[in-house]
Design goal:
By secondary structure, this protein is mainly beta. The chain has two domains: 49 residues, Roll (SH3 type barrels); 74 residues, SH3 type barrels (Roll). The protein has one helix and ten strands. It has a five-stranded antiparallel beta sheet, with no helix packed on it. The chain has a five-stranded antiparallel beta sheet with strand order 9-8-7-6-10, with no helix packed on it. The longest helix is centred in the C-terminal third of the chain and has 14 residues. The radius of gyration is 18 Å and the shape is globular.
């Protein structure tokens, strides 16, 4: 396996298909064989630790314009993430093709207040991880926020 470089764009294969940027190789892993070394990567504002085998370099070539990509969602569509359908609801902000597959910039509805107050979850998400949904009522969001607060 080829070592990754700082600043290189990567596609995280495990646990989910996410895009990230390599920050650096974990200093404590220098003595390990290359396939066992882990990398610190930026996923939006969070840093996570992954083995090289769970990362795949993203080629910076422009996609072939001859390969048609059908985009199911449009900017402004209200959608939810299938992995967390009760709380991860929001809008499509942009779309792009990655290796011939549609991905969408998802921004969580700001009414949901998970984790750090004022922080909003944003991520590039593969098309298969999203589904159209109705914008929930303020009452529903308040109930979800209350449940989250009680559980933390």
């Amino acid at each position: 396996m080829t070592p990754l470089k700082e600043g290189q764009q990567v596609f995280i294969k495990n646990p989910r298909g996410l895009e990230a940027t390599v920050v650096k190789q974990r200093p404590g892993d220098k003595e390990l064989p290359e396939e066992d070394r882990r990398y610190i990567v930026n996923i939006n504002v969070a840093q996570q630790l992954y083995h090289l085998a769970d990362l795949e370099a993203i080629e910076t070539k422009k996609p072939d314009p001859e390969i048609p990509v059908g985009f199911l969602f449009a900017k402004g569509d209200y959608v939810r993430l299938k992995m967390a359908p009760q709380t991860r609801m929001g809008t499509i902000e942009a779309s792009k093709a990655v290796r011939g597959r549609a991905q969408y910039h998802f921004r969580q509805d700001q009414r949901f207040r998970e984790g750090v107050p004022g922080a909003v979850f944003e991520a590039w998400v593969p098309e298969g991880e999203l589904e159209i949904c109705a914008r929930p009522s303020d009452q529903y969001v308040a109930a979800v926020n209350t449940a989250i607060k009680m559980g933390s």
